[in-house]
Write a structure and sequence with these properties.
Helices cover about 15% and strands about 30% of the residues. By secondary structure, it is α+β, with helices and mostly antiparallel strands. Strand 2 and strand 3 form a beta hairpin.
Length: about 160
């Protein structure tokens, strides 16, 4: 099977600098969101994600084929609230079904990082689906979850 196209960039995401990091940290209290540091298993890819606190905000669990096989536990930050600090250019992409969304993963360890929706759809905000399993210092056993029946609601159905 040929490799999926390599992502050129996630438009709107930023790369961290010390000055930007200080400015970002100063805005945390203003919008009741917090930054979570994250990395793939081998730590070749590192990034930060700004979302409402997972102490209060639910993580999405879906039973569709890709979420089940990749082990996704998803949160949905705005595209400009994801900052890659290392390894973005090495990410690989996988597409399936209608081949419209990139599922990005580390080529070294295989960790599934995110789903790129490629911009707003049908009036929806411009978000990315980030795998919360890769966030540092969170306890998934204590997290709140919201369940989605993607197996029956998403098209096309998975067939192998």
């Amino acid at each position: 099977m040929p490799d999926a196209p390599r992502p050129t960039s996630i438009q709107g995401t930023r790369r961290d600098t010390t000055h930007e990091a200080r400015e970002i940290d100063a805005r945390i209290m203003a919008d009741n969101k917090v930054w979570y540091d994250a990395n793939c298993h081998c730590a070749a890819v590192r990034y930060r994600v700004k979302i409402p606190s997972l102490d209060e905000h639910a993580i999405n669990i879906c039973n569709c084929s890709i979420c089940t096989k990749f082990g996704y536990c998803l949160v949905y930050p705005m595209r400009d609230e994801v900052i890659f600090t290392q390894g973005y250019d090495t990410l690989k992409a996988y597409r399936f079904g209608r081949k419209q969304k990139d599922h990005l993963f580390c080529p070294t360890c295989g960790s599934s990082l995110l789903i790129d929706f490629h911009g707003p759809e049908r009036g929806q905000p411009d978000t990315l689906a980030m795998n919360a399993r890769l966030f540092k210092d969170i306890d998934l056993d204590k997290a709140k979850y919201r369940y989605f029946d993607g197996k029956h609601k998403l098209e096309p159905p998975y067939e192998f």
